[in-house]
Amino acid sequence: MYQFIKYIVLAFAVSLSLISCKEKQGNKIKVGFSQAMTTDDWRKQMNSSIKIEASLRPEVDLTIKDANNNVNKQIEDIEKFISNKVDVIIVSPIQSKPLTAVVEKSIKAGIPVLVVDRKIEGENYTAYLGADNIEIGRIGARYIISHSKGTGKIIEITGANGSSPAYERSLGFNQIINENKRFSIVKTIQGDWEKESVKEPLKIALQQNPDVEYIFAHNDRMALSAWETAKTLGLENKIKFIGVDALNSVNGGIELVKNGVLDGTILYPTGGNEALKLALKIYNKESISKNNILNTIVIDKNNAEIIENQMDKVDQQQVVIESQQEAIKVQEKEYASQNNLVRLLSFFLVIILSLTIYSIYSTISISKKKKQLEKINQTVIHQNSEIQEMAKLAAKSNAAKLSFFTGLSHEFKTPITLIMSYVESLIENDKIKGTALIDEVKLIHKNSNRLLRLINQLLDFRKIEEQKFTLRASNTKIYDFTNEVMLNFKGEAARRNIDFQLICKNKNLDLFIDRNLMDKVYFNLLSNAFKFTPDNGKITISIIESSDNSVKIHFKDSGIGIPENELSNVFNPFFRASNNNKNSSGIGLHLSKEFVLLHKGNIELKSKQGSEFVITLLKGNEHLQPSEIIQKVENLSSIPSLITDNLELESELKDLNAIADSEKHSLLIIEDNADLVTFLKAKLSNEYIVNISDGSDAIEKALEIIPDIIICDINLVDKDGYEISKELKKDLRSSHIPIIILTAQSNKEAVLKGLQSGVDLYLTKPFSLSILKQSILSLLFNREKLRYYYTNNIYRVEPESKFGNQEQTFITKMNSIIMANVENPKFSVEELADKLGVSRVQLYRKVKAIIGINISDHINNVKLEKAAELLKSNEMNISEIAYSLGFSSPNYFSTAFKNKFGISPKEYKTSS
User: Fold this and answer.
1) Interatomic CA distance for residues 123 and 133, integer angstroms
2) For burial by CB atoms within 10 Å, which of 159, 445, 769, 824 has the most?
3) In this predicted model, what pLDDT tens digit does every residue of 600-622 receive, in sequence order?
4) pTM, rounded to two decimals
């Protein structure tokens, strides 16, 4: 009896539980989704992702209405959602303008609207979710620009007229293309998102422009049609095709990229699961952004297979989730059926018992399946996170490579500058024939080889990445080889007093090495050693035989070393240590490691007091393949020194009619490139007193010397050229000095920034020496004209507002102070300097630089001008005027007055 009552109570409890469950279902959040995707693949992908998200949220009642690309049907579907008073409406508009009114109607009815994929006209909607179609167009253009190697001619195939994605993608694409003069859009074809709209107009366009390099289509279907059309003309292999969508389906974008039909496709995410999540946030009145942009990436042959595998995994998980959902629905239906039976046959003990057991079993089963579903969902989320992380890493890698190529191109400009300047010098100087020509030729040759090394290093990096290097090892006496390379650095070591040694006990030691590749390894390691080792330092190469049939070659220097926490990153491409302020491409050590690995060797770094690189190579040739060994020894080509030897230029032809030092203008060159400094000093020292600074003490040296003109680079050791120019122009002591910027940075932004910092002239490398010389003369001439103006109009300088320069302000203020104290006999230079806020020495230098006379003479001139006014007024006699203006005696006053005006005070008074 007890058991019977127990089963009855249990049955009623289950019944009440089911009734409660149904009541809860009646309170679900109603979400209406008006679908308008134009293709089956998009519908399937969008609907599948939003259904999966809804299945994970039991509180959501999702209704999907498919307008099947019919605008009127979509408006009707939304009207029904409004009349049914759903909680949130998600709309994917077919067209923007026709749906604007019905969306505004929903907003007025108090139903929030989330617009996805395409926007409506105006801003009267709750939120928008979709990809940034303008950015998609930009990404397509950037991809073409970065990969183009041909004509730069492009055909664009747009989407349907009136479609916001078509307009925005075209806008973004044209923005980037129009910024690059090498590229041009020779034809824009209006498509309607489908294949057939492309073929005929494209065929005509290709016949007119057979040398087109790229075709950019607004979706993959039109891109495929473009490829098929090009194939009929035999142009499919000459043109590269870029699409948008990247669907993982038959003839989808990813498959077309893998098959080589498309060169790339841009992922256009549907965002179904994100749409439902955002809709629930809107319903819960959480803070959201008005515009929510989905991330995208470019998919090409490098990542197509990875993305496809990830999407396949997601699709597989979605299939599993859908099957689980169907099983849950079946279980829920069976559960409801059992509930009805329990309510009808609650008094039949056996039936109650069986239904109870079955209901308990069903509950456990559903719980297990839900847990499995949650686990699968977590796997999907994790995989999505991995895809996003991979996209970020790819973007970071591309940014690093772009930065590398930009930096390297600037590094080329200085050597090119030297080459062009020396060539120009040789052309213009007829006297140099048969004299010191060899010195300049050597410098041209040296910098040419430097440029060649940089270019070869770039090519080596490409070859290493593509694994195209083949080892050509020959039997080599490593001592002789090392000594031969060291010869190229002996001059630099001597010039900088660096102790440069080679230590080797066995001078007949043989190793199988590729002399060409190992030469590059040696050169990179020694270049770094000399770059970071100070003068009077020490660099040692030690060759040591080990007992394990190997040889260790140590490159040790006494330089600045590398921070311990960065040692593991030294051989990574594009890496630069935090304490490295030198210009560097960041690939030298990476290439060195790869070349050593080709020898089946190893390279490691130790850094305590300076840096020590250790190369380990095996003896003999058993570790090498027969194809990697050559019998004939290849001679090591001489390595040109990249370090300027000051002795090389000492024999340069001297001008016999050089200007005397006392008559020369002083010049300060602020530049950290030793070759360029030596060249400029050699070419300008006959006409100017040349002072130099590497940038670390530029401001201090300028204020110490007060030169007549300054030539300054931008990329310097401590402060850049902009900061130096700005500080010097703001400083009262140096504001009058003309500044010429001489740099490799030639873009508009750099020039504008230079002019804003106050420089007088902006010249870019490569530069013409004759133009530089003429520019210096012009600036000095203009300074002399200004000095002449100030000297002859010193008492009538216009107010500051007329010209607004600092010198004019200074002179105006100085004159006003002098005039206010002109009748004060105790007024001194020290008091004037104090009122101007400068020292006595600074005042003397400033006045001398601006008006060409010292301050004492200037004060006397002002007093004499005042004396002339007093003489004209006839109110005082000559002695009274002399003593009132602070002159020691009337005789001294008369002498000074006559020296200035050419007549005595008495004659001046009489004539007036």
Assistant:
1) 17
2) 159
3) 999 998 877 788 889 999 999 88
4) 0.36
